[in-house]
Amino acid sequence: MAPSPKVLVTTRLFDDAATHHLVARGCTVVPSGLAPDALDTDISDADLDRLLDGAAGWIVGQRAVTRAVLARHPGLKVIARRGVGYDRVDVAAAEDLGRVVTIAAGANDAAVADHTLALMLAVLRRLRESAAALAAGDWRVVSGSDLYGKTVGLVGFGRIARQVARRLHGFDVRVLVETPRPDFAAAGVTYVTLPELLASSDVVSLHAPLGPTTLHLLNGETLGRMKPGAVVVNTARGGLIDDAALLVALAAGRLGGAGLDVFEAETDPALRPVAEALVARPDVVASAHAAGSSREALARGNMISAHCVIAALLGEEMPAGCLVVDGR
Predict the structure, then answer these.
(1) Is Oxidoreductase one of the keywords UniProt gives this record (predicted)?
(2) Strand ordering across the sheet containing 100-103
(3) What letter does residue 93 receive in the DSSP assignment?
(4) Are 51 and 10 in contact (CB under 8 A)?
(5) Which residue in 12, 207, 266, 300 is the catalytic one?
(6) pLDDT digits (tens, 9 = 90+) for 11-40
(7) In which band, very low, low, confident or very high, does the pLDDT at 184 lie, cut at 50, 70 and 90?
């Protein structure tokens, strides 16, 4: 009898239902040993090699999956990201080395869309400033702005941005979309160029993948093109914004505020002081890359990741939209 394939799980908050599903399909599940809410970036290289020894599958959270790691573990057949971004996975190396890489497509779309609207509303209505004033005993009204009737620009128009657009229609806003390849005519949105979007939008919300062409999409020059008093929201990837340039624009009063779930400091610790300066500002509402981490979204992502691993190891049909690369 063939041994049960070993599946390492290093993502945080992996629930019992997904674990039981893997076990029921004949897998041996190996936990990371981290605290339930700890990130797998805390695992040392030596401990990671120990955990991956003999593993056929790896359900990964934020840990970088490098060519070197893959080369040291030739028996590792599938890497399943419990999320939709895969910029921390060397997909070219995975394909070269004959591995499968998957994402949990659709797991957190609704959660991130909800969080995006929450940040827009919180910044526009100055909820942080209002709460701070109340906590200090000042009950005077802090007057914010409506989302109703505004123009909102969406940069990128994938699954999450489309859900954001659906939610925005309830606020009677004008939705502008900048995307290089509009693959369908979406009702109620207007496709424009990025300069048009920046000049016209009261709120600019980022939903593009991070890559060489989108790194620092919002920088000193493009932030300067934005409508005076506009709000920036980023629930995608930190590198889409030059955080230092955003800090300058906010300090100069050119923008009305920012709602930030992601920061450049997540991948570049040298930029931590910039992130901390942004978070400290009263016109910034921030969260710690938590947009996709509702309890429901995490459970969906866990189960989709489990299905992806089983599909790759047992040769079954892969869940729709989850396959990133197949080097087999």
Answers:
(1) yes
(2) 28-31, 6-9, 55-60, 78-81, 100-103, 323-326
(3) H
(4) yes
(5) 266
(6) 999 999 999 999 999 999 999 999 887 889
(7) low
> Alpha-carbon distance 64 to 193, whole Å?
34
Give the homologous superfamily in CATH for domain 6-107+294-326. Answer: NAD(P)-binding Rossmann-like Domain (3.40.50.720)
Residues carrying CATH 3.40.50.720, the chain: 6-107+294-326, 109-286
Catalytic residue among 237, 264, 300, 307: 237
The torsion region of residue 246 among left (phi > 0), alpha (psi -120 to 50) and beta comes to: alpha
Q: Is 289 a catalytic residue?
A: yes
Whether 266 is a known active-site residue: answer: yes
Q: Is 237 a catalytic residue?
A: yes
Gap between the Cα atoms of 313 and 318, Å rounded: 11
pTM here is 0.89
What fold is seen in the domain 109-286? Rossmann fold (3.40.50)
